[in-house]
Amino acid sequence: MSNFPNAFIDQLKTLFSEQESQYILDSLEETAPVSIRCNPYFKGNLAVSHENITQNNRGYFLNERPIFTADPAFHAGLYYPQEANSMWIGAVFSFLRARYFEPDEALLDFRFVRRSWRENNGHFCAYGSRRLVGSQ
């Protein structure tokens, strides 16, 4: 039996079929999966049971939810909790980088560097011969 308010259930039934509404309610009753992303610069082993996330080679589903704040590996920076669906951006980025950019190009997101851009009269200082590619 669900613990959802009747108004919520009624609204689901007006937006979706009976079967779809029941599917949504059943899925909301399930335990949410727990996923983490490992820090690529930290070398260590996960001491918990896990399985790989397809779209990210540093992402893992955990078989059970740990108490993150009681885990020294979490505080040391070995991993951080991250929803698995948000790891898709890394796969998209890797694909685009391999297809459209040279290995020595540095990619920038100008939203994070607008202030320094303005302070330096619209110029970036690059080390070496790397070409800077950005979007605003």
Salient structural properties:
single chain, 136 residues, 4-stranded antiparallel sheet, 34% helix, flat, disordered C terminus
Descriptive report:
The chain is an alpha+beta fold and 136 residues long. It has five helices and six strands; from the N terminus they run H-H-E-E-E-H-E-H-E-H-E. A four-stranded antiparallel β-sheet has the order 2-3-1-4. It has a two-stranded parallel sheet with strand order 5-6. The C terminus is likely disordered.
Number of strands: 6
Looking at the structure, what is the overall shape? flat
Task: Extract low-pLDDT stretches.
Answer: 112-117, 124-136
| Total DSSP helices | 5
Mean pLDDT metric: 77
Structural class: alpha+beta
Give the helices and strands, then pairings:
Elements: H1 6-15, H2 18-29, E1 34-38, E2 50-53, E3 56-62, H3 72-76, E4 79-81, H4 88-100, E5 106-109, H5 114-119, E6 132-135
Parallel strand pairs: 5-6
Antiparallel strand pairs: 1-3, 1-4, 2-3
